[in-house]
Amino acid sequence: MLSLIVFLPLAAAVVLAVVPASVGGRMFTGSWVAVAAADLALVVAAWLGYDAGGGMAYEQQLRWIPSAGASYHVGLDGLSLPMVAVTSGLFLACAIHSLRQPHRVKSFVLLFLFLQTVSLGLFTALDLILFFVYFDLSIVGMYFVIARWGHGQARQSALKFFLYTFIGSLALLLGFIGLYLAAEPHTFDIVALSRANPLAGSGTYGALVLLAVGIGLAVKTPTVPFHTWLPPAHTDAPAAGSAILAGVLLKMGTYGFVRIAMPLLPATWRQYAGVVVIIGVVSVLYGALVALAQEDFKRMIAYTSVNHMGYIILAVGAAGIVAGSDEQARSLAITGAVTQMVSHGLLTGALFLLAGVLHDRRRSYDMSTYSGLAGPAPVFAGVTAVAVFASLGLPGFSGFIAEFQIFTGSLSSATVATALALLGILITAGLLLRALHRVFLGPLRIPDAPGAARDFTDLRPSEAASIMPLLAIAVVIGVLPRFLLNVIEPASTTLIEMVAR
Amino acid sequence: MNMHPAALIPELTLVAGAVLGLLLGAWLPRHRQWLVRLLAALACLAGLAATAVAMGNGPRMVFGGSYAVDVATNAGRIIVLAATLLTICLSIETVESHQRETEFYVLMQLAALGTITLTGAADLLLLVAGYLLASVPLYALAGFVKDAPGTEASLKYYLMGALLGVTMLTGITILYGTGRSTGYATLAQNLPAAPRAAVAVGIVAVLAGLLFKIGAVPAHFWVPDVTEGASTPVAAFVTTVPKIGGLIAVYRLVAEALPTVGVNWSLLVAVLAVASMTLGNLAAFFQDTVRRLLAYSTIGQVGYILLAVAVATRSEIALPALLFYLAAYAVTNLGAFAVVAELPHAPRLVDYRGLARRHPGLAAVLVVCLLGLVGTPPTGVFLGKLEVFSAAIDGGYTWLAVVAVANTVASLFYYLRWIAPALVAVPETASDTLVPAGRWSAVGAYTAGAASLALGLAGGIVLPLLTGSLLP
């Protein structure tokens, strides 16, 4: 069942690969939407069949490379199930959004189907090598998305993205090997490793392993100071690429913290939780302040991603500070972190798709050249306003639920840091509202673009159909979060118990 | 004297293929020389079949304890024979109906035979015989086309090989003098009591010859010139096959003859590994011709493989790591060369612009092989690197693994310099640089690319076959 969810897109890609490109783009985008929808349906079925109290579900383990201690081990629990759901949802949205993809449709569709398998695979992997394989393949896939379909300085941005995250992935690999060699018998299996806790009381060795794993995940997340690849990659990627990059690929880093770093290295994590908290707060504030200074709409969203990821880092760090906090608060922080991953995936995905609308119409993201767009494009303005309000954490949206839990959960153990991080909300609220104000209100002004019509077309049906459901789910989570929290909470309690060992 | 010629069927089929091929070639008219090629391919296939049978028989020493038939030898045989088969496949278009086609395949088989001898040699004299047999045919092959670059390459290759071969002989003399034997087993008993300085000089001198064979720093100067000067199939062969024998020979030497000597050969190999990977990768950065880039890439790759040798006596997983990496490296490197052979009019990186449009299949093979050489999963070299790094950390050389990882990142840069134009760029004008050479090179490329991927995915089946211990 789970393997079907993971490999369905890839199988579809293999089938589509033999269809000649001359059949026409419609055929490819159409099949893509169908496959993505089918995959989402399967995920929904898996969610409905999931027993929240039962721990790991849909587990499957096959022999792969027994002599190297690696196996094909997959499963879903409360940490991975929401991520799998967001991933398949976002890919469906991107499929719908790309119905009008003008050039090189076939390879575009094949690449995204491949990326979907890779992303879903990563969130279901329960083996470090399997995790690593998907982690690296996601970098390869995204490199080609940016380099081939991007704009501006796409080649340089793609290379920068590749080099940074690849360095990170290799640091991660060293950390994984460190874990592998510490376990007796040697294994890469996450479940077995978390049971064995091989690096308990290992001092420097454990710290080095955590450092390697931490750097790898921090680059991918990204946190300050490893975030410099993110803004160019986002700015120059195509809209669907940015949405996947922000909505899914960034989560691979934060997910790694809750799936690997915390449960496999509990003692070391507790020891260095303070450092993590500080990195989180710096990311929150730095991301927000730099976003404030941006003229480029897409780049601004990219920096708010650094800010939002910072909240997650803060929460996972605070969850490691055992002294001065009770288990419930730390569990709340983890629940908030996972909710934030879901929420950020939905909202930033939507925001990047909306930014793609600007580029699609006028080939520019420069906010100073736009003004008063609410007149010709009221739907676009309205949807963007909703996305912006949701993103700044207004109650009633998923972002609020997430950030509320993160702050409540972190406050007792990391009081000063949490208080500082609250400022981040203030700054993001200011900058997002300012952007909204500059682009949509005031007298109408749109930049000239060669070959484009004078006016500004409102959202097309395919664009609306891809963006609005994402926001609708964000609202549902904001108003009725129980269905999500019921799944996450048992898993975060388990995680906290593991960290406290 | 335990002769056991039956244990040497893979070697004997190569000899038979070479000798019969030479006789046959003297008879045949030029357009019928493909029969020699067929014979060479059949010899390789027969050797592969014989090795498969031999793997079931269990390890043994033959020829008075001078030749070991164990897991390393068998793996070496399979890799060398398969690589030779692939090279034959991708050389068909280049040497078809050449006036010396017969000689080409005969020399290639003899070089493969020498390489296999290197893998099994457990005696210094047999080692040097294998060294010569694996070198001399290649000097001739490097200058096969008789043009200026080929002649220069051949001469440089020969001079380096002769010099370091003599150095190696000197080292053997010293080790024989101090250890009172040329057999590894006896050396291992006698050398710890011998004068340390003399032993150290002997080890370094013997290593020098083997470093030449594998193209590692500091004996790497011939690699770029030969790779660029010789024809593409020869370049593919020279940068792949001798390394297999050379690396297994180094491993066997340090693990069997020197396990307890008072010389820190382990650190020496580690330093050589670092030098090799760093220099190879840095020199590859701004190369503009694909063959020179591949040449420096192979120097870098040897550095990674030497990691396994450095921890030969310190980690249980060093041997499977070495053998698996060699297998993965062989198919991946040959795959990249097969693409080059298929596109003979595209010598520079920029000529590959728009390859994905014109030949999507070849572009896919190129991406698989180049990303494979970087070590991106799920290719074979990734698994090889994983094993090698694990072995290094397990053997207490964590710093070495970190250096290797840093080098891996650096290497990414120049491989991407090749991948990017091939996949991303659109050709400005319809040029004729991307005209394919023919069917066989393409077959070779697809086979190698598929094998490179398959080794990564099916590592679970292959790795146990490579696990075992060396004789004696």
Automatic annotation (TrEMBL), chain A:
<feature type="transmembrane region" description="Helical">
    <location>
        <begin position="161"/>
        <end position="182"/>
    </location>
</feature>
<feature type="transmembrane region" description="Helical">
    <location>
        <begin position="305"/>
        <end position="325"/>
    </location>
</feature>
<keyword id="KW-0812">Transmembrane</keyword>
<dbReference type="GO" id="GO:0012505">
    <property type="term" value="C:endomembrane system"/>
</dbReference>
<dbReference type="GO" id="GO:0015990">
    <property type="term" value="P:electron transport coupled proton transport"/>
</dbReference>
<feature type="transmembrane region" description="Helical">
    <location>
        <begin position="379"/>
        <end position="402"/>
    </location>
</feature>
<feature type="domain" description="NADH:quinone oxidoreductase/Mrp antiporter transmembrane">
    <location>
        <begin position="125"/>
        <end position="428"/>
    </location>
</feature>
<dbReference type="GO" id="GO:0003954">
    <property type="term" value="F:NADH dehydrogenase activity"/>
</dbReference>
<feature type="transmembrane region" description="Helical">
    <location>
        <begin position="464"/>
        <end position="485"/>
    </location>
</feature>
<feature type="transmembrane region" description="Helical">
    <location>
        <begin position="414"/>
        <end position="436"/>
    </location>
</feature>
<dbReference type="GO" id="GO:0048039">
    <property type="term" value="F:ubiquinone binding"/>
</dbReference>
<feature type="transmembrane region" description="Helical">
    <location>
        <begin position="108"/>
        <end position="125"/>
    </location>
</feature>
<dbReference type="Pfam" id="PF00361">
    <property type="entry name" value="Proton_antipo_M"/>
</dbReference>
<dbReference type="GO" id="GO:0042773">
    <property type="term" value="P:ATP synthesis coupled electron transport"/>
</dbReference>
<feature type="transmembrane region" description="Helical">
    <location>
        <begin position="202"/>
        <end position="219"/>
    </location>
</feature>
<dbReference type="GO" id="GO:0016020">
    <property type="term" value="C:membrane"/>
</dbReference>
<protein>
    <submittedName>
        <fullName>NADH-quinone oxidoreductase subunit M</fullName>
    </submittedName>
</protein>
<feature type="transmembrane region" description="Helical">
    <location>
        <begin position="79"/>
        <end position="96"/>
    </location>
</feature>
<feature type="transmembrane region" description="Helical">
    <location>
        <begin position="131"/>
        <end position="149"/>
    </location>
</feature>
<comment type="similarity">
    <text>Belongs to the complex I subunit 4 family.</text>
</comment>
<feature type="transmembrane region" description="Helical">
    <location>
        <begin position="239"/>
        <end position="260"/>
    </location>
</feature>
<feature type="transmembrane region" description="Helical">
    <location>
        <begin position="337"/>
        <end position="358"/>
    </location>
</feature>
TrEMBL record, chain B:
<feature type="transmembrane region" description="Helical">
    <location>
        <begin position="104"/>
        <end position="122"/>
    </location>
</feature>
<keyword id="KW-1003">Cell membrane</keyword>
<comment type="similarity">
    <text>Belongs to the complex I subunit 2 family.</text>
</comment>
<keyword id="KW-1133">Transmembrane helix</keyword>
<feature type="transmembrane region" description="Helical">
    <location>
        <begin position="293"/>
        <end position="311"/>
    </location>
</feature>
<dbReference type="Pfam" id="PF00361">
    <property type="entry name" value="Proton_antipo_M"/>
</dbReference>
<dbReference type="GO" id="GO:0012505">
    <property type="term" value="C:endomembrane system"/>
</dbReference>
<feature type="domain" description="NADH:quinone oxidoreductase/Mrp antiporter transmembrane">
    <location>
        <begin position="121"/>
        <end position="409"/>
    </location>
</feature>
<keyword id="KW-0472">Membrane</keyword>
<feature type="transmembrane region" description="Helical">
    <location>
        <begin position="317"/>
        <end position="341"/>
    </location>
</feature>
<dbReference type="InterPro" id="IPR010096">
    <property type="entry name" value="NADH-Q_OxRdtase_suN/2"/>
</dbReference>
<feature type="transmembrane region" description="Helical">
    <location>
        <begin position="396"/>
        <end position="416"/>
    </location>
</feature>
<feature type="transmembrane region" description="Helical">
    <location>
        <begin position="75"/>
        <end position="92"/>
    </location>
</feature>
<keyword id="KW-0813">Transport</keyword>
<feature type="transmembrane region" description="Helical">
    <location>
        <begin position="157"/>
        <end position="177"/>
    </location>
</feature>
<keyword id="KW-0812">Transmembrane</keyword>
<dbReference type="GO" id="GO:0050136">
    <property type="term" value="F:NADH dehydrogenase (quinone) (non-electrogenic) activity"/>
</dbReference>
<feature type="transmembrane region" description="Helical">
    <location>
        <begin position="197"/>
        <end position="222"/>
    </location>
</feature>
<feature type="transmembrane region" description="Helical">
    <location>
        <begin position="35"/>
        <end position="55"/>
    </location>
</feature>
<dbReference type="GO" id="GO:0042773">
    <property type="term" value="P:ATP synthesis coupled electron transport"/>
</dbReference>
<keyword id="KW-0874">Quinone</keyword>
<feature type="transmembrane region" description="Helical">
    <location>
        <begin position="443"/>
        <end position="466"/>
    </location>
</feature>
